[in-house]
Fold this sequence. Notes:
Blueprint: E1 2-8, E2 13-25, E3 29-30, H1 39-54, E4 59-60, H2 63-72, H3 79-87, E5 89-100, E6 103-112, E7 117-121, E8 125-128, H4 132-154, H5 167-178, H6 186-197, H7 203-214, H8 218-229, H9 237-245, H10 254-264, H11 266-279, H12 283-290, H13 302-318, H14 322-335, H15 340-352, H16 356-369, E9 373-374, E10 377-378, H17 381-394, H18 398-413, H19 417-423, H20 426-439, H21 443-456, H22 461-473, H23 477-486, H24 495-508, H25 512-526
Parallel strand pairs: 2-4, 2-5, 3-5
Antiparallel strand pairs: 1-2, 5-6, 6-7, 6-8, 9-10
Amino acid sequence: MVTVLIVRSPSAEVVLDLNSNLVAVATLANETGNATLAPLGRMAAERIAQGVQQQGVADVVPPVVALRAAADVRDTTDRVGAFARTTGAGVVLHGAYYLLGDSLQFQLQITDVEAGEVLSALAPVTAPSEPVTEALGAVRERVVAALAAALDMRAGILPFPVQPHSLEVYRVFRQAALDDTPFQDVQLRLYQEAWAMDTTFYPALLMMTKELRWLNRDAESDSVARIADGYRDRMNEAERLYSQLYRGEDAEAYMPMVRRLVELVPSYWSYWAGWAAWRAYRPRETLEYFARVDTTGPAVTPFRKLFYWMGMGRAHHMLGQYEEELELLRAGRREFPDSLRLVDSHLRGLAALGRIDELNALLDTLFALGVERVPGGFRAVDTRARVGADALRAHGHRDAARKVLERTIEWIEARPPEESVQLRLGSYYRYSLAECLYRLERWDEARALYEELLAENPERAWYLGPLGAIAARLGNLERARAISEQLVGKPAGPPAFQQVRRASIAALLGERAEAVRLLREGRNAGMDRGRWWEGNQGIY
């Protein structure tokens, strides 16, 4: 955004644009009491400006222009604002230096003049007064890194303010923060690399706790969190809240912490608060937070933008606002025409409105696509069809749901054998077929397939769960309870996954209080994970 400011001079009226992305470095104030050190303020400003420009962190007002501007506003009360207006810069680096024995101490701030707020108040930088070049080098390295982090903070890339000691470390940290590879360890490895480069940069530890939790490596996450706790006295409020957020100890405390984080760092947390609210079944809050998100900013990567559309659509769905849901999803699908996740939501909206012909036409398009490998998996059009069938059934269109499932079975059975071999989808197709048979209440056929799959891989909880549900539906209560106990500790998916499956079995057994208890446990286990939604898909 550009703000037009009018600056009056004795000779003329000059109109200047305040460029929010332009940085000006003011001459540092000499507070040493030693007049011979006065030139150091100008030298430091020039070194910092050169570092910012050379490292590509931001565009900088040329030092000669900044020096002249600093002289012009020397006697002005609002020196920072006047300096910004004179240079046209939206961000100003300013500060002073002091003598501490034989050392120099530099104290600087980074101010967003347009927003009227301090982006970062740097921790004091202390260096020997001789040689001066060493002191200036230390200041430049710290300030350039801090400026890069402060600008990223303003852009919504960081969850809390950080003050890295070097730009080299920060760039590795930043790469991890912007990586949107879903549910893999790419970000984790980058944060580990940043920590290895500088073992005083504890923000890397905080981010590692989240990544480990999302990867369901809870013991490791807790171990790293304990190391991070050793730096608690250095943490700002946002960091302290973040350090608690991914411990999985109290789901009820999760949303209050996120709300406070939105107040502290709205540029980052508005997006993540929207998803946290959705996972907490608070659709109105989801819409409220997502409405604040700048989806054009660098922090909203394509993967996150996709989930933004999904979250908005699902929130409207929860509120029964189906027309609004479809309007949003049409916009999302124009941006992501190949995304099957948005198709899921589209199918739900059509089913809710009873627009069965449109739903079937969309399925026609999907079935015509066929199957192919995509990043992280393959295009599972039959899964989309099951989503459509579930939505139809949920909204009272049972006959239409049955027809969709029967058609999906025909599609699965028509898959050529070479496709299954080439794409290694044999087990998947059998699982998908079993899911369809279950929904059609063809219990014996479904059970035979699930048992066959479970025999091949005994640790797969998603084969065991439906077997427990089938046992409950057929009146085999003891077997259903035994299978529920077997689900405890299964490694397939997060703990929330198992608890949702066990809750489904309990509900089918008529044990409503136990089902609610298990769902609460699942919510507590999954609230702090990116993969909670995977465990929240049970329909048994």
